[in-house]
């Protein structure tokens, strides 16, 4: 049910304006968890994509060296290239390459306002807040132990 409504929303999203061309074509993309709630990515036009299937690299031996299941996807207007060889299946690699391309286009078109970077910034802020609270708690415990140790020494010395 959720996936069907998500696809409908995805297809209904407007295409990006030609005025929003990227100023830096070499921007990197950061993959985030919880991608399902990120629905404001640009829609990919298949006419603007150049897709190739090449042989992958890495561990796997002969199976990897002989099969062409690595997908190289190029967005012609921006020149962004995505290479995906995460699984042995060409279909899954094609789907994942398109997801990564959408994320990269979002970063390229929107810059710092892209949903990927906003989510990354939010998670970093949460981590910093958590770390700050932990440090405050540790400092409180340290001060409490110091007060106990200084408070107990005069009692031991007088007894």
TrEMBL record:
Single GO MF descriptor: translation release factor activity
Any one GO CC term of this protein is: mitochondrion
Record flagged with keyword Transit peptide? yes
Where is this chain compositionally biased, Polar residues type? 147-159
* Compartments where located: Mitochondrion
Instruction: Indicate the segments forming the Prokaryotic-type class I peptide chain release factors domain, all copies.
Output: 44-135
Provide the residue span(s) of the region labelled Disordered. Answer: 121-159
List, alphabetically, the Gene3D superfamilies matched: 3.30.160.20
Compositional bias (Basic and acidic residues) at which positions? 134-145
Which Pfam families does this chain map to? Answer: RF-1 (PF00472)
Keyword Transit peptide applies: yes
Q: What is its main location?
A: mitochondrion
| InterPro entries, per database record | Mito_Transl_Release_Factor, Pep_chain_release_fac_I, Pep_chain_release_fac_I_sf
User: Sorted alphabetically, which keywords does the UniProt record give?
Assistant: Mitochondrion, Transit peptide
| Protein family according to the UniProt entry | Belongs to the prokaryotic/mitochondrial release factor family.
Q: What is this protein called?
A: (Atlantic silverside) hypothetical protein
Which organism does this sequence originate in?
Answer: Menidia menidia (Atlantic silverside)
């Amino acid at each position: 049910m959720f996936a069907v409504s998500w696809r409908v929303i995805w297809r209904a999203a407007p295409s990006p304006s030609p005025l929003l061309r990227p100023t830096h074509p070499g921007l990197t993309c950061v993959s985030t968890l919880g991608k399902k709630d990120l629905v404001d990515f640009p829609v990919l036009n298949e006419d603007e994509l150049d897709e190739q299937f090449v042989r992958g690299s890495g561990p796997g031996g002969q199976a990897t060296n002989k099969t062409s299941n690595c997908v190289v996807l190029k967005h012609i207007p921006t020149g962004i290239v995505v290479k995906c060889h995460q699984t042995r299946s060409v279909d899954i690699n094609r789907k994942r390459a398109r997801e990564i391309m959408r994320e990269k286009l979002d970063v390229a078109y929107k810059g710092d306002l892209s949903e990927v970077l906003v989510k990354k910034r939010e998670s970093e802020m949460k981590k910093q807040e958590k770390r700050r609270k932990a440090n405050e708690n540790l400092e409180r415990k340290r001060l409490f132990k110091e007060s106990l140790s200084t408070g107990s020494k005069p009692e031991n010395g007088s007894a």
